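Reproducibility note. Readers wishing to regenerate the assembly model reported in the main text can use the exact inputs given here. Chain order matters: entities are listed in the order in which they were concatenated for prediction.
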Amino acid sequence: MSPTVTQRGGRRPSAALGALVLGALCVTGLGSGADAGTPDAAEELLVKARKTATVESFAGVVEVVWLDDQGVEHVERVGARGADGAFVIGIGARKAVGDENERFTNSGDEHTRWKGHGGTRAPRPGDSWDLEIAGRRHVAGRSATVVVARGDDGLVRARFAIDRETGQLLRRAVLDEQGDVVRVMRFVSIITGGVDAPPPAMPGDGFDDTPVAIETLPSGFVSRADAGSGYRLLGQYLQPDGAVQLYYSDGLFTASVFQRSGRLDWDALPPGTPAAIDGVRARSYSMPTGTLVVWSDRDVVLTAVGDGPPDAVIGIVAEMSGNPSDDQSWFDDVTDFVFGPFDWE
Amino acid sequence: MSGTEFGAGEMDESFLSAYLDGELDAVARAALDARLAESPDWRAELAALRTVRDAVRSLPLVDAPPGFWDRVLAPEDVVDLAAARRGRVWVSRWRALAGAAAAAAVMGVVFVPRPEPVQPAFAKITQSHAERASLGNDVVTNLAGAVVPVGIEP
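Running the prediction on these inputs yields the following structure tokens for the assembly.
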């Protein structure tokens, strides 16, 4: 038995749905070409949007909206701009800067840095999701094409709004298995092209520690080529602090599983949401970047974080903890318990 | 030991010894069973304690030297206090040896280095994931959440 919300397994036949959508688009004039409403067209928009922000110049304000573990909505705004292939998001002590192959992020007390990744190429978005163009909307005053991603059960699990002129991703919303929005990133204002902003500079010396790609994990750590449903391992990394990071993607969303030797001190963790995943004690947190789950296995502390629907991250935890989510009632119980407060539209 | 002495969140690991020795009442035992079911750490602790107990129980029984009890218990004989003392010393030495063995068994388990406590650094973890995810993906939607304050760092 497989979980209800992490339906994956390759591109599914959706000719009938595609034909219906195509017909609807032709009638309403949403498509700009003969195949504008097909899954392939939707996928092409998403693939192009992956790179646009590091190619086009832009400046704007991004709103981050998420629900915390008590179901309280949080809204934060950050500035973002890019030019000449470089970008900066945030300001002052809280910012991320980068270019095509390098990243540096400082969230106040912590900084992290990446140089390239040496990993495997990400799958295409349509490998695991049914994609369709679902219309147009205005985001930050710009006309955008809306792409929705559905699971095998037909439920929409993500909505993307892509700028029709530049192809830049303007809005991303992630929905849970009840169809409720749990997390949104959106531009609330943006100007594109001809932005008069110097390329943000990467920090200099003193911030050189970067994760290193590794082929073999240190003793005691575990890896899975596939995790959850549809997530594929794209890279294994050794962090400067000795932790191991496994990086996964299903083509649309991403997740990482961090492992570190030691004993998890449960009492020192923030409250979060307690959970039991097939007999494995865990604690879950709803973060601006996604869902984070902590648990331990013998003498290893594991932390999974992913930007997909919360139940998808739980599915990864179940698989990584050696308990594949093959129990329908268990899975429903856990996801209902952990994410029940997300009754939010 | 009464289950009314503690709540589910107030048990400490001393209850594991009582649990192994069958000294807990039904309520306390049920509470501890529940804790064991949800906690790999508690199960590991219980296994360690059981190993210690078994090691102590496996130590050999100590017999007095031949003729010792005959000499001590024979009423018609004058008790050779010096010999009796030697016997007591012999027994005491055995007891000391047994105690030392038990202590060694206990120390062998107790002093095996336990893993260091670890607290996941949420900020670093979410940042590092967001950075990796942004390589080859949209940078804005992947990184904007990593630079906003969250306020739940351990």
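We highlight two features of this model. Chain A has a mean pLDDT of 82. Chain A is about 15% helix and 40% strand.
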